[in-house]
Specification:
The structure holds 2 protein chains of 2 kinds. Chain A has strands at residues 5-7, 10-13, 19-24, 31-38, 42-50, 53-57, 64-68, 74-78, 87-94, 100-102, 106-110. By secondary structure, chain A is mainly β. In chain A, the strands form 2 sheets. In chain A, strands 2, 4, 5, 6, 9, 10 and 11 form a 7-stranded mixed beta sheet that branches. Chain A has a 4-stranded antiparallel beta sheet with strand order 1-3-8-7, with no helix packed on it. By secondary structure, chain B is mainly beta. Chain B is built from no helices and 12 strands. Classes of the chains: A mainly beta, B mainly beta.
């Protein structure tokens, strides 16, 4: 079974730009969650999608958004990038027993 | 709401030392409990889990027991290796309601030869 795939793995943007990250979950998983990981703030929950609906949301500004498609693939978008958005963005799909399967992450650098 | 509290790191141990990383939780229901590990440069991966009270999860020499009376899920290993150096996250999943996964802040473990 293929694991969770995130693209791109690395990207560099400048302040004010926007970015879209993609996540393909494990086949059959309907839940996809996104996390931001930084050295200072640790692992922060962004949002979770289940069957194309946002089910849970963390405490991030509206610049952070996401969506899920009918094939369970998910994208997250960050608009008007700020220096503080530099982070590792992790995607995870969840099975019916609550176990999360993480991708390797997309490392975003904002200059 | 639900919450997970785990001990602050970093924790530095010599090889073959005994490891304990404390984790306590607050939950309204009957959550499942997990330990995830993140090796340098990688995403998180499941280390072990327990789904009900008194269950013991184990993997790669690590163990944790679901203690409902003390709301704890402490991670232990009898003899750590350099290869165990990583960040360890305690988490809970509430299967009711919105089924959200709640993570602790992570504990960085460094094992020195």
């Amino acid at each position: 079974k293929a694991g969770v795939t995130q693209t791109p793995r690395y990207l560099i943007k400048t302040r004010g730009q926007q970015v879209t990250l993609s996540c393909s979950p494990i086949s059959g998983h309907r839940s996809v969650s996104w996390y931001q990981q930084t050295p200072g703030q640790g692992l922060q929950f962004l949002f979770e999608y289940f069957s194309e609906t946002q089910r849970n949301k963390g405490n991030f500004p509206g610049r952070f958004s996401g969506r899920q498609f009918s094939n369970s693939r998910s994208e997250m978008n960050v608009s008007t990038l700020e220096l503080g958005d530099s982070a590792l963005y992790l995607c995870a799909s969840r099975d019916n027993g609550g176990e999360l399967f993480f991708g390797e992450g997309s490392r975003l650098t904002v200059l | 709401g639900n919450s997970v509290t785990q001990m602050e790191g970093p924790v530095t141990l010599s090889e073959e030392a005994f490891l304990t990383i404390n984790c306590t939780y607050t939950a309204t229901g009957y959550p499942s409990l997990f330990w995830y590990v993140q090796y340098p440069g990688e995403g998180l991966q499941l280390l072990l889990k327990a789904t009900k009270a008194d269950d013991k999860g184990s993997n790669k020499g690590f163990e944790a027991t679901y203690r409902k009376e003390t709301t704890s899920f402490h991670l232990e290993k009898g003899s750590v290796q350099v290869s165990d150096s990583a960040v360890y996250f305690c988490a809970l999943w509430d299967s009711g309601g919105y089924q959200k996964v709640t993570f602790g802040t992570g504990t960085k473990l460094q094992v020195i030869p």
